[in-house]
Amino acid sequence: MNLDELLVLVIEPSKLQRTIIIDFLREVGLQAIEPFTEAGPALERMQHVVPDIVVSSMHLPDMTGTDLLSQMRKTPDLMDVTFLLISSETHYRYLEPIRQSGAIAILPKPFRKEELEIALRNTMHYIRDTQDNEPLDNDELEFMQVLVVDDSQLSRKFVRKSMNAIGIEQVVEAKDGAEALQIMKQRRFDLIISDYNMPNIDGLELVEHIRHYSDQPTVPVMMITSEQNQSRLAAIQSAGVSAICNKPLNYETLKQLVRQFTTGTDL
């Protein structure tokens, strides 16, 4: 898949910001770009043509970017569309639903071109791998058993799709740490990917139990979290996680870590 084959919808009320974003998208090779100032007309357009990428601001005249993404994820044809947020918003209540809904990236406003380039490259690789009909040459990953633990169904789905794109088909899901530990009594895993903030048993408690009380104490555990508190992050690290990744999850980073954990080499 080439860049000029992708349809991108840019939703940004500021003419200046919209022009900056569109000009840079064209610089990197994207040609099919449709601009919108509000979410409503963009959603209407999506009912007729499904885009490959939606680039949106957070605060739109008719709704927030969070509301927009929520509506997209509730629509069968749009639930898997790649979403990239560009916003100066820092409030948890706005950004957390974006992180939990499988957004490919959240960029600050104003953004640096290098940041957008990295996000677009990450997006392109994700789209390429998920839409590629050719099997990936990753025979050593074919029989990997991966457990994904997250109370967000959308987050679990994004990680599952990412695993499938990498070439891993054996993916089991758990909605929290308690369910994960029950599953681990019945099955063995090559990798566990867990959220941190979850009900019942959170990610930290899950890692501690795995390392000290389970019969799989050496299994690699990757923690995905939007947590910013340094003391909590230090506690997660001390518990014995193999890696800590930020939400939104960087697809290229995920690919590299999976290969490192399983084969000791990079993709």
From TrEMBL:
Residues covered by the Response regulatory domain: 7-124, 145-262
SMART domains with a match to the protein in the record: REC
Sorted UniProt keywords: Phosphoprotein, Two-component regulatory system
Superkingdom, taxonomy of origin: Bacteria
One annotated GO biological process: phosphorelay signal transduction system
InterPro entries found in the cross-reference section: Bact_response_regulator (IPR050595), CheY-like_superfamily (IPR011006), Sig_transdc_resp-reg_receiver (IPR001789)
4-aspartylphosphate PTM sites in chain numbering: 195
One Pfam short name: Response_reg
CDD domains to which the protein is assigned, alphabetical: REC (cd00156)
PANTHER family: PROTEIN PILG, STRESS RESPONSE REGULATOR PROTEIN 1
Name this protein carries in UniProt: Two-component system chemotaxis response regulator CheY
Native source species: Marinobacterium halophilum
